[in-house]
Amino acid sequence: MMFLKVSNAKIWLALMGLAFLVSCSDAPEKIAFSGETMGTTYSVTLYTKDPRHNQEEIKRKVDIVLERVNAQMSTYDPNSELSQFNQFESTEPVVISRELERVVTRAIEIAEQTEGALDITVGPLVNLWGFGPQARPEEEPSDKELQTVREKTGYQKLRVENHQLIKDNPEMYVDLSTIAKGYGVDRVGHLLDQLRIKQYLVEIGGEVLTKGGKPDEASWRLAVEKPVSTERAVQRVVQFKDGALATSGDYRNYFEEDGRRYSHIIDPATGYPIQHNLVSVSVYADDTMSADAYATALLVMGTDKAKAFARKQNLAVMLIYKTEDGFNEYISDAFKPLLSEQE
Ligand code: FAD
């Protein structure tokens, strides 16, 4: 047989040629993995043609990035950089990492823009209502307790100057829960950019960043949940190639007492958990940190103010609010192009 006449060396060369063809083929490899971070889960899906990219190595690097964000910004870790700042009962400036500086600066910008609806100093109130690292209170806090705690809050009493963080009241406590998850997603995206990965989706606890679409020019398709705690169902499917989507809602993280529902989102203007008909806010933006922060801020505002704010700022948002007949949606003009026609 012809086959037998071919020398071993030729077979080897032929196999090499085949391997070369395979590695040069146009079909990218899909790599997908998940893990745990920030009291929740994360997942990464990416496509690559580079044979040097391997899942184990990329996951190891992603975990290092996320551990770093945790070590800087977690209020659940008493040794984190942020916890140390919170424990430092002084108005003396504290030198902080560039990463913490970046997140606090952006949070203060959005606080100013939203007239304090987003306020990263509400931590003592979050804890008082039992949604932080501390245990839930036995009963609703008294007006006096609320008043005492509110004196320690107010983003206007927090400043970043020359890479230093300064609080005007030594008992202030900074809580980045609403923005640092989004920042963590952006950091992982940055890592994948550095690894020259051009198509990816990164997600932490539902906050998502995508880049480059999927192979064959397809967009990433994402589901926005129905705002109900009894089941996991899809409200809308959105699709895009590049960008970030974050959703805030009060339908999962809440407790009920004496027939009243207490949300984990605090209205800094009253010190109370929000009490209105807006139940879910999704925001699409260039970066996940901003999308995450705006989603919480708009949820605090309530339906009418959130609509007006989205129109004024031309934000891409989808609001879901309760009516007597069920749920209604408000979809801003900038969000409409993201809606998928096939759901
Ligand atoms: P979002 O809407 O994104 O944020 C809501 C949270 O923001 C509230 O729970 C409250 O903390 C705060 N908030 C409420 N009102 C306001 C307001 N008006 N302005 C600003 N902020 C407000 N959880 C754990 O159980 N264990 C952990 O080890 C843990 N580690 C974490 C580490 C990091 C770095 C971060 C960022 C979070 C961590 N969490 C941990 C918290 C957990 O994942 C949170 O539930 C989450 O960050 C809140 O996100 P969300 O999407 O539920 O709500």
UniProtKB/TrEMBL annotation:
It comes from Idiomarina abyssalis. It is found in: Cell inner membrane. Flavin transferase that catalyzes the transfer of the FMN moiety of FAD and its covalent binding to the hydroxyl group of a threonine residue in a target flavoprotein. Its cofactor is Mg(2+); Mn(2+). Mg(2+) binds at residues 178, 292, 296. Residues 1-27 form the signal peptide. Pfam families: ApbE. This is FAD:protein FMN transferase. GO terms for molecular function: metal ion binding; transferase activity.
